[in-house]
Amino acid sequence: MVRDKLQDKSYFDEAVGFYKESIAKDVEELKSGELTKVVKMRYCFGLVVHCMNLLNNTYSRGDKLDDIKPLLHDVLTFRKWQNDYANALPEQEQTERISWEEMREDYLERHLKWLSFAYCLDMGEEYYLKALKFIGNQGQDALFDKISVKLGDSGREVASGIQFKKRFGKLYKVIESSPEQRPSLANDYIESWYSLIGNPDYHLMNSDAYDGYWCWEIALVVKLFNIDDRAFINHPYYPKDLVYNNER
Length: 248
Prior knowledge:
Elements: H1 9-31, H2 37-61, H3 65-87, H4 98-101, H5 105-120, H6 125-135, H7 142-150, H8 165-176, H9 182-196, H10 216-224, H11 240-243
Helix pairs in contact: 1-2, 2-3, 3-6, 5-6, 5-10, 8-9
């Protein structure tokens, strides 16, 4: 059964097919040996993005969660490739990696989604620590740092504040508050989530931009901090199947 309520299975079938084909083509291009290291690094960044989009669409389509797990291994592999190509750049080209690795709002959203899938699907601490190593940016954002510590990165430097207060201030408040306050604050966050991401209305566009409206980061925080989610368990943006690892 399709988890998403705004599109049908055929819509997601097409999206899934597109991303799988795009990933296969990009991997083949990387193997051709005709690209520079800088371009290969960028290709790998694109592969990670495609995999994350594929995670969205397969979840929205209603795929079994065990069938989604292999994608998480692909994400880690492609992120490692990106790091390897970046490390192989000559010293005078090392600045080329900055814009692909720095802490940006959209990158943070993607990192939290990645970790949400990984933690909720029990990929294990070794996986989390590898992912966090490749993501880097220690001591840059307190929200991400404190989540990382909770995931097992115990020696991580923790920033004194968060970078993206408008977007993630409410979520940071959840993890900074007392356990008894967290359920209410988590509910506030998911209620505000759609406006916080800019009221995108992708489902109304005549394009393939829509891949489901899911608040992945609250799933991670709820499970990681053991928050009572009864107040919002049936909220349309809450990916409860992921949180409870429910198969269809």
